[in-house]
Structures are given as C-alpha cells and as structure tokens.
Amino acid sequence: MGWGSFSRSAVKALAAGTLHYTGLQGVLSRASRFAVGGRRVLILSYHRVVADFEAEARRVIPGLLVSRRTFERHLDELAHGGYDVVTLDEALEVIAGRRQGRRDVAVLTFDDGYHDVFEHAFPVLARRGATATVYLATGLVGTRQRFLHDRLYHLLLLSMGGEHRSGRNVLALESMGARAASAVDRLLSTRSTGELTDLVEQLEQSVGAVNEVAPTAGEILGWDQVRRMASAGIDFGAHTVRHMVLTHETEGTIERELADSKQAIERETGRPVRHFAYPNGYYDRRVVTALVRLGYHSAVTTEDRPNHVGGDPFRLRRKTLWENFSRGPFGYSSSLTSCHLDDVFTVLSLTRPVRGERFGGPRGPSHRAEVKTPGAEEERPGASA
Ligand SMILES: [Zn+2]
Question: From the CA of 64, how far away is ligand 1's center (Å)?
C-alpha cells in the first residue's frame, strides 16, 4: 500500500465515520433495501482465517486473509446491522421471492478449503450457532499440494527479492506483496490452469529450494475435518477439482470438473452438493448451462453488487472480505466495516464492482482485455481465487 491508497483509505474511514454518526448511513441502507425488493441478501466471501494477520501476510497473499479477531467483529457487525446469518438455501428462498424474512439475511462463504477455516473459523461459528458454506477444490483436499495462486505468489515474491523480507520495512513489503498479488490476478485471467501449472513447475525447478516465504505444506482441509464440519451443519459446495478457471477450458473439461468435484464431496460427506463457486469469479454461458444440467442449484461470483429478489441463482453476487477491508488509518474501524457491509461506497461510487462474466470461450479475445484500474488492489486485493 503506497501513499495513494493510504490517503484513499483515510478518506473512506472519514466518510464512514461521518455517515455512521450522522445517521445518513441508515437512510442509505433503507434506500438500498427498497431498491432490491424488500430484504437484503448479503453474501460474504472469505478465504482464510488466521491467528496472526501480520505474520501470515508476510508469507502468503494478504488479500485472502482475515484475522480471527476481525472475523468475530464482522459477525458482531452483521448482528448489530440487523442481519440474520442463514444458510445459502434459505437465502435462495428469499431471492426467489418464496420467503420474506423479518430481517435482512447474510450468508458466510469460504472459498478453496484452507485448513485454517477448520482451525479458526469453525470454532467461532460453532460457538455462535452460525452456519456457512465452504467451497472445496476437491483434488487438493487431504493432500499436501498447494494452490497454483499460492505457488505463483511465492515465485513472484522470490523474483522481487522477497526471500530477504525480514530485513525490509513494512511499506516496501506491502508494495511488493500488492505487486505480486496483482501479477497473480493478471496471469490467472489470461492463461489456462494447465499452462500456468507447467510454468510454475518449471520455475520451481529452476529456483530450487523452499525458503522462509513458502506457505507451509499441508495447508488444505482433510476429509475428516470436512466430515466433522458437515455433521455440525456446515454446508459444502464445489469449486472444481483442480481450482480451474473454467472460462479458459473446453466444454468437456468444464463438464468433468463440475461433475467430479460434486461427486467427490457427496461420496465423502454423504450429503447432496447443490452449490458452486466460480474459481477466480469467472464464468460464461457454457459453465452456467453445465451447472444447471448437472443439478446444481446456485453459483456464486465475486461481483460486489446487491442481490435482488428475482435475481439469477447462478450469478449470485458476493462481497469479498479481508483484513484491510475493516482497517482505517488507526486500526480496526467499526464504522468503516458497517459502511462496507451496507454498500455505502458502491452507492457513492467510490468502489467499482469487478465483472465476472467472460465472453468468447477459451482463447477468446476478452481474456486479454482485462485491464486493472490503478488502485484496484485496494478493493480487490489481488488473487481473488
Ligand atoms: Zn478459489
């Protein structure tokens, strides 16, 4: 984060405080509730929940992290803001117009299937009686493999001299991390998973040994943990087998990735799998058609817009959260968090939602047309995974 984004975050924190304490935020949230047709359906997207954000952010993609303490504060903020945390199935009933809740509803989702969801999020959820949907890339569950986005990020840090991170100052580290994360995003949006896997394997061989910034191996959930969470009411959805960005793939591969990941979770948990999360948030018509044919009920994007009553269950909008989402210039900010949850910055046009729909199929020109606006890392901190 450079001075540009520091001042932007300061402006937002100031705006948030003003809106919050003058009551204007309440007016804006009532207006947005009216605009979506009654009750709001807020779907939140997390990846990893960790004990120590600062320590983990030196090693892995910071935009995928939230500390356990901040995660708990988010849950407090939701309750305080008038949201009931419900299952995705219940939220889909509201979106379909078949159910009218007394309060707004929120759904918690976790993508990828990192082990720390079991270690840090699950105890918090269990204590509060809250539920969530966890989307698994089934081919990595129970293995010591690492996600391609984590391996790429690690290699990019190495190429920037990140192996000597301990001796650098915080601003230099943050800017290095932000550059690496947006490079990962760019690579994932332009190359297929197969191409990138080959590239990463070659680079890893040429670089050689693992070092201090390497993510710890075995960071993915095991099936026993998945079963324990499932029996406590956590819902599991699919996120492909190999975390494939499907818009780069052929129809045969799309079909196989969607069918095999669904079957694996159903076999291991004995429960039906109805929900899907698009890797990297990218989808196209072919993917949606295959999901419907295979019996899925919904799919989530990473488009940060409100969900409307009557909205498409295969284009569910989600708000991606991470640690800095709630950080003003002076640490955790409750008013900043609640303004984000209320979409105040989208209403005021301070945030531009990222589009997930891709056109043109594999190798289509749109994959190269993705252009990041300066400062986009702040809202979408890179490697949306
Ligand atoms: Zn993912």
Answer: 10
Helices 3-22 and 334-341: crossing angle, nearest 10°? Answer: 80
Measured in Å, residue 330 CA sits from the centre of ligand 1 at 31
Asked, for residue 372, whether it belongs to a domain, the answer is no
Strands (E), the chain: 41-46, 48-50, 65-67, 83-85, 104-112, 133-136, 235-238, 275-277, 298-300, 319-320, 327-328, 331-332
Structural domain of 289: 3-146+215-357
Token output for 239: 């996120």
Domain count, the chain: 1
Q: Ligand 1: distance of its center to the CA of 279 in Å?
A: 5
In this prediction, residue 242 carries a pLDDT of 95
Average pLDDT per consecutive 10 residues, the chain (385 residues; last block may be shorter): 54 69 67 70 95 90 94 94 94 92 91 96 96 97 92 87 60 84 90 92 77 66 97 98 95 98 98 97 96 98 90 95 85 83 65 68 44 38 63
Stated pTM of the model: 0.85
How far apart, in whole angstroms, are the C-alpha atoms of residue 243 and residue 249? Answer: 12
> What is the spatial distance between Cα 189 and Cα 279, in angstroms, rounded to a whole number?
11
Q: Is the separation of the CB atoms in 8 and 375 below 8 Å?
A: yes
With respect to residue 189, please indicate whether it lies within any of the assigned structural domains: no
Q: How far, in Å, is the centroid of ligand 1 from the Cα of 18?
A: 35
Q: What is the pLDDT of residue 334?
A: 85
CA 109 remoteness from chain centre = 8
Determine, yes or no, domain membership for 203: no
Within a domain: residue 373? no
Q: What CATH number does residue 331 fall under?
A: 3.20.20.370
